[in-house]
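Quick illustration, no need to memorize.
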Amino acid sequence: MSEHRFIYFADPMCSWCYGFAPVIWALAERFEGRMDVQLVMGGLRAGNTTPMREEDRAYIRDAWARVHAASGQPFDFSFLEREAFVYDTEPACRAVVAVRRLKPQMALPFMARISQAFYAENRDMTSAEEIAGVAEEAGFDQQEFGDAFRAADTRNETFRDFLAAQELGISGFPTLIAGSEKKGYALVTNGYRPLDDVLEPLERWWANGAPVTKTGAPSLH
């Protein structure tokens, strides 16, 4: 296993992370054997208890349209017809952490599946029952997944993910950094970028020995 890795701060119910899903997957495949992907849940709207208002619907409609235009990812806008929907991202984040605990190699594709179910299929990814259905479709035993999803250790690990992002000052998703514990990390992107924008700079950075300045995490661009 390489000492170098990507650390990907994301939320399965963040629309720009959904747009970025094909990019991070392509990077994981391109750098396989050189850098693994460590997934950290951002908690975009974790713990939210306020139902969507009309102005929230307008904001979401505009954001989804922009993500679709930039990434080509499909959206089911009938989601906006839901009444009194509470946009709480904690259950979806916790589901990804549960999978990360059960099968770490499945965490990234499972997050993409949760996002697809929510954005493209209009399935309620705040519902534990609906999330369990997606996990079963992804090949997980329903009882095993349910136990992991409800476990106190999973809740605590999810909270630690949120705290790690906050302590690093990461409030926007997706955020991707690359590097190692020994040398430090460089910022790949804070926000959505297409693959063509990040792949060549990453390859140059890698070819130059994955340098990181002592003053922080510089952009590779």
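The CA atoms of residues 22 and 70 lie 12 Å apart.
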